[in-house]
Amino acid sequence: MQQTQIGVLAIQESHFTDTALQGLENTFNGRMQILNSIDETNPNSKGVAFLLNKQSTAWKDTKTVEIVPGHALLLLLPWHNDQTLNVLNVYAPNPHNENETFWSKFHKKWKDDGLPKIHFLLGDFNMVENSIDRLPVHNGPQGPHESLAKFKSLLRLIDGWQHENPDIVAHTWHQNQCDIYSRLDCIYTTETIFKHTCNWSMSPPPILTDPDIVNIRVFNIDMLYIGNGHWSVPLFTLKEEKIMKEQIYNSFKTDLIVVIRDYAKKHIPMIEKEIQHKISQLEEVLNNTPDPIKKLS
After folding, report:
1. Are residues 143 and 180 in the same domain?
2. Would you say residue 1 lies in a domain?
């Protein structure tokens, strides 16, 4: 996370036991905050978590809402102007009927319970919406697809990666045994937030696991742009005797100013004189032009 400057990392199938979680927090104390959700009835399966980079997020003021233990965790991350960036991390059930019910319950919950607005819906959806997102290409069950589509429509969410790359086919998961490719992992966002994102991409994880990581950069448009700045002389070079002995560089700036001033002193009066001459010519043309009305009379 430090090397790639990741601020928030959402993971699924975390399988974090209390012992493992405590070990990670001890190892990365001061650098990373872990927010975890597990299914207490089956802690060795499922699980979703957020890993927050303490150096680039307001982690102390971050809040979470556990929607479905081990399956859905909502992150309320302080953003700017007293607003929060709300991210829902999901690990959807694999069976088709459970997957369909999963999204139907979400639709009802957000419609009836007044839960916070979602800016990003991401995670392992265990389904693909379009046949092109699976290889070999074929259509999956309509139930989960329609249920998810209804939930997205309620929140007005779009598939950010597909919106950014409409002509590119890519997959995040590969089953070696049957040689099947699927894009099971997605990031959905609103059209407004999408305008403030960039660098949508997929990349292999740094450890031996699946699936690939879906990456995104979110920026605050109210922040000032900070560029690379002007070039400056490396301080260590000032200690180099060979460089400091070159007197020509010491007097270059002074000599250049003298040359420019002399040139300007000589040529500015000539330019002003030419301008006045052009103005006089223009006035003469305007004054000597016959009046068309008088000519007709």
Report:
1. yes
2. no
